[in-house]
Amino acid sequence: MDYISTRGSAPALDFAGATLAGLASDGGLYVPRTWPKFSQDEIAAMAGLPYAELAQKIMLPFVEGSLSAERLLELTRAAYGRFAHAAVTPLKQLDQQQWLLELFHGPTLAFKDVALQLLGLLFEEFLARSEQNLTIVGATSGDTGSAAIDAVAGRAKIDIFMLHPRGRVSDVQRRQMTTVLAPNVHNIAIEGSFDDAQAMVKRMFNDNGMTDRFAIGAVNSINWARLMAQVVYYFAAALQLGAPQRKVAFSVPTGNFGDVFAGYVAAQMGLPIERLIVATNVNDILHRALSTGDYSQGTVTPTAAPSMDIQVSSNFERLLFDVGGRDGKALAEQMAGFEATKAMQLTNAQREGAAALFSSARADADDMNRAIRWAFVECGETIDPHTAIGLHAARVAGIAADIPVVTLATAHPAKFTDAVEHATGIRPTLPTRVGDLFEREERLTALPGDYDAVADYVSAHATPRP
Ligand SMILES: Cc1ncc(COP(=O)(O)O)c(C=O)c1O
Ligand SMILES: N[C@@H](CCOP(=O)(O)O)C(=O)O
């Protein structure tokens, strides 16, 4: 399988190359040249497989040429062996129609572990084959950072620099990052929003002064391998609910559009998905884009679901590329217009292509609190604010009653204790596997929201190319 850029002019790479490159050199995102397809019989035969084996089957076509089937299975077994639930991503029924897919049983209590536990192993595998080292530069609104740091802390040939918006992540999220004291881990708190941090990261990939000296790598969902690993749990959930004979809808709390784009990939591979519901908080650029075609960047409003306080949604570009006819040159012009003006209109083809599978809904604080309370009082489930936004959208989406609707439960409620306590009156407790998080020493560097300050810091602390 080879990978092409959404902006059409970067060289095509194999899976190992795309994994180490992260972002394409023309500023685009890598996507597989074609979507692998499974027949309905092949999908039916996957029912009942242990998660690591299912993961190997789904991902094998994407890694062809870079990993053997046997090696991939070793890696999926190692990655998912660290999860605290035997099913890895267990499914729970809430009522006749609504289900939760719990994605937070990994080491850092959010769905990011599902992909990043594997990505850490993939980096190690591919770096061992070459002289190269990797300078990972990432942006986080709280969850990617901790999951990525857990996945690469202490690994040879890797330095990680993780930027988070100062004061805009929860205490648990911050401490999960800043209490990891391995020498290859560098936490940077910047002034500004997640979008500011993400823009700096993307700029660094296109800064020749930096890329000549350092092999910059990505752990954000701009890295294709992240999305590939997230495709698996759509299959896992749908198979349990009767796929491929029965269709299933998914509601996905969305920020950077990575998680829900993985659902789109599952559908392209043959999984019968009724609908993908994009659930946003009041930072609703995606809801506006999907419902009106207007993709224009608003100011970020801090909310109780901080991981989704995002107004520039990286992976939307992958969808626009695919539903807009895979015309890299035209998309490069469209994205250049967005970068210059902070606004763009979707073309008719993009709107119609997206509407075939996606719906959207926006939840404000009241909607979110009501959904937390409904799950708690009516179903006995404590859910986190991000999951609550997904659940709100799932319940108002108007999906036919005989179709199950699965909300992706993206974080453990104890990552957002204040918001959950506010809605339920009960303060959730952290699972014992995170240990003495609040006793540990923290280490981080505060920097202004200024690209040069961040680039100088990375230059001073990263290991140059050999
Ligand atoms: C808990 C949680 N839920 C949902 C999201 C949104 O996921 P995505 O950015 O893949 O759309 C994030 C972060 O991105 C998150 O951390
Ligand atoms: N919510 C994310 C934001 C970064 O998204 P990513 O999926 O592109 O890494 C976070 O928790 O950091």
Helix and strand arrangement:
Elements: E1 2-5, E2 13-14, H1 15-21, E3 30-32, H2 40-44, H3 51-63, H4 69-80, E4 91-93, E5 98-102, H5 112-128, E6 134-139, H6 143-152, E7 158-165, H7 171-178, E8 185-190, H8 194-205, H9 208-213, E9 216-217, H10 224-240, E10 248-253, H11 258-268, E11 273-280, H12 285-292, E12 294-296, H13 316-323, H14 328-341, E13 343-345, H15 348-355, E14 358-362, H16 365-379, H17 385-396, E15 405-409, H18 417-424, E16 445-447, H19 451-461
This protein binds pyridoxal-5'-phosphate (PLP) and the ligand N[C@@H](CCOP(=O)(O)O)C(=O)O.
Descriptive report:
The protein is α/β, with parallel strands linked by helices and 466 residues long. It has a domain at 86-108 and 224-424: 3-Layer(aba) Sandwich (Rossmann fold), CATH 3.40.50.1100. Helices cover 43% and strands 15% of the residues. The protein contains 19 helices and 16 strands. The strands form four sheets. Strands 4-5-15-10-11-14 form a six-stranded mixed sheet, sandwiched between helices. Helix 3 packs across helix 10 (224-240), helix 4 packs across helix 5 and helix 6 runs parallel beside helix 7 (171-178). It starts with a strand and ends in a 5-residue tail after the last helix. Bound molecules: pyridoxal-5'-phosphate and the ligand N[C@@H](CCOP(=O)(O)O)C(=O)O. The site of pyridoxal-5'-phosphate (PLP) has 16 residues, from helix 11.
